[in-house]
Design goal:
By secondary structure, this protein is of the alpha/beta class. The protein has 12 helices and 10 strands. The strands form 2 sheets. It has an 8-stranded parallel sheet. The chain has a two-stranded antiparallel ribbon with strand order 2-3.
Length: about 290
């Protein structure tokens, strides 16, 4: 159910408010282009700047617009366990198929604290939980041994791994049960992660090239490594451009250039530096997007 190209969906804004019409168009765009799951309200969705009301509304609308055609994995993590439980219970109530839980940020819990945090959230709902490990943003790494303990909890089913360490990912895959899902959290590493037993990616670049990301995952699954490798290298420079500044600044800028959405961001995220925007435009032109 949770595999292939799963998009880390942007939250479109217009005049300071969530642009609900654009959100619906984006969801239709992804369904038509082979995206296998929608992941609203994650890092790419600017969740730290969404109010509770907006956060709940975006998840509710994503479920409504998807109409059960593809799964919705709602980003409902927080650095407060109580807040994460509240957001996750709401996502379950409105029909989300799963929850994405980022490790608590800033307060830097111990491995025991991480275990207890995720355990409390998982026990508060019945929907599947996918963990999200990204120490570069949160300040703490979920160690492979902690994943082993967490995998014993029935509805904790996998991890979006953005540690950047294939060694760590290999250890997680080796130590955890065979059905524990390993999902790439880094577009540049999707193909290597698939090669070590991963099932797909929660992708930033899929916001603008969903068909290619989906095709790469599908080709690898079917054993066509040559095609998958070709798509990996085709996307590589565009992927690099997506992270030339803090995500989701470049991808929203790109979507604005492609007339997909208004490229509005919320402070403290801001407009790209001109020299970086030129590099982004160059990568997009070379890819044939503009």
């Amino acid at each position: 159910m949770f595999k292939g190209s799963m998009v880390a969906l942007v939250t479109p804004f217009k005049n300071g408010k969530v642009d609900e019409k654009s959100l619906e168009k984006l969801i239709e765009f992804h369904i038509k282009n082979g995206t296998s799951a929608l992941v609203p309200c994650g890092t790419t969705g600017e969740s730290p700047t969404l109010s509770y009301e907006e956060h709940d509304r975006v998840i509710e609308l994503t479920v409504k617009f998807a109409r059960r055609r593809i799964p919705v994995i709602a980003g409902t993590g927080a650095n407060s366990t109580e807040e994460a439980v509240m957001l996750t219970q709401h996502a379950e109530k409105v029909g989300a198929d799963a929850s994405l839980q980022v490790s608590p940020y800033y307060n830097r819990p111990t491995q025991k604290g991480l275990y207890l945090h995720f355990k409390a959230i998982a026990e508060s709902v019945k929907i599947p939980i996918i963990l999200y490990n990204i120490a570069s943003r949160t300040g703490v790494n979920i160690e492979p041994e902690t994943f082993v303990r967490l995998a014993e909890i029935k509805n904790i089913i996998g991890v979006k791994e953005a540690s950047g360490s294939l060694e760590q990912m290999s250890r997680i895959k080796n130590l955890c049960p065979k059905d524990f899902l390993l999902i790439s959290g880094d577009d540049a590493l999707t193909l290597p992660v698939l090669a070590i037993g991963g099932v797909g990616v929660i992708s930033v670049v899929a916001n603008i090239i969903p068909k290619d990301v989906a095709s790469m995952c599908e080709a690898f699954e079917k054993g066509d490594v040559k095609k998958a490798s070709g798509l990996h290298y085709k996307m590589l420079e565009l992927v690099k451009a997506m992270f030339i500044e803090t995500n989701p600044i470049p991808v929203k800028t790109a979507m604005g250039l492609m007339k997909m959405i208004d490229p509005e961001l919320r402070l403290p995220l801001c407009e790209m530096m001109p020299e970086n925007k030129e590099k982004l435009i160059k990568a997009m032109k070379e890819y044939g997007l503009i």
